[in-house]
Design goal:
- This protein is α+β, with helices and mostly antiparallel strands and 211 residues long.
- Helix content is 17%, strand content 25%.
- The strands form three sheets. Strands 2-7-6-5 form a four-stranded mixed beta sheet, covered by helices on one side. Strands 1-4-3 form a three-stranded antiparallel beta sheet, with no helix packed on it.
- Strand 6 and strand 7 form a beta hairpin.
Length: 211
């Protein structure tokens, strides 16, 4: 267990969201993949050097004579330069990279058991052999990245996940404030294969849900 001085407590609000990671997927068409990877490594390194808690892990911690089993961010046990923030993966097969299962682009599963390491943030750069395109995926621990930044910045009013067109991709979005001041339900963004939307439109259960 890390020393108390090496952990950062999360707020009660951070304990409310589901215990999962939100993946974001970005596509780049770059003539020099290695140059792009070097740029990613340099940029991520600069961010981590200024915000080292992004390299930490979410753990459960109890304070003596205080709150029990509360989530905290623990500092990494290794130097920041050794934390695997960015993983690079090459796809060598001569096929459309978007035909791979979405999990093949991800460094971590969307849901990590409490018994396993649960990092705050991770990236994976997926390089396609031909043509040389790059798909960059990132994970943010939903319990850490709250939409309410307190009195300094306030609450995020709108956001766009930028879900890439990867068949079978799914992102759960936090609730958005609505005009009457109440809170809307959580949203789910799902990317369907071509033709699936017509099939779903004919589904009786979905029709009742959307009615």
């Amino acid at each position: 267990m890390p020393a108390v001085s090496d952990i950062l407590g999360l707020t009660p609000l951070d304990h409310l969201p589901a215990k999962l990671f939100l993946p974001y997927i970005l596509y780049f068409d770059h003539p020099d993949p290695q140059l792009a990877i070097n740029t990613l490594q340099s940029s991520i390194g600069k961010v981590i050097s200024q915000l080292p808690w992004l390299a930490g892990d979410v753990i459960m911690h109890s304070v003596p004579d205080g709150p029990k089993d509360r989530m905290h961010i623990a500092a990494p046990r290794v130097p920041l330069s050794e934390v695997p923030i960015l993983q690079v993966k090459h796809f060598d097969r001569d096929e459309d990279i978007r035909s791979h299962p979405v999990q093949s682009y991800l460094h971590l599963p969307t849901i990590c058991p409490a018994s396993e390491q649960r990092p705050v943030l991770r990236f994976q750069a997926n390089i396609e052999a031909s043509p040389e395109n790059i798909i960059v995926t990132s994970w943010g621990n939903l319990e850490v990245f709250s939409l309410d930044f307190g009195p300094g910045l306030g609450r995020i009013e709108d956001f766009e996940p930028g879900l890439a067109l990867v068949p079978g991709g799914c992102i759960l979005l936090p609730s958005r404030p609505v005009s009457n001041g109440s809170t809307a339900p959580w949203e789910v963004c799902i990317t369907l294969k071509k033709g699936d939307s017509q099939t779903l439109a004919q589904d009786s259960l979905l029709s009742r849900i959307l009615a």
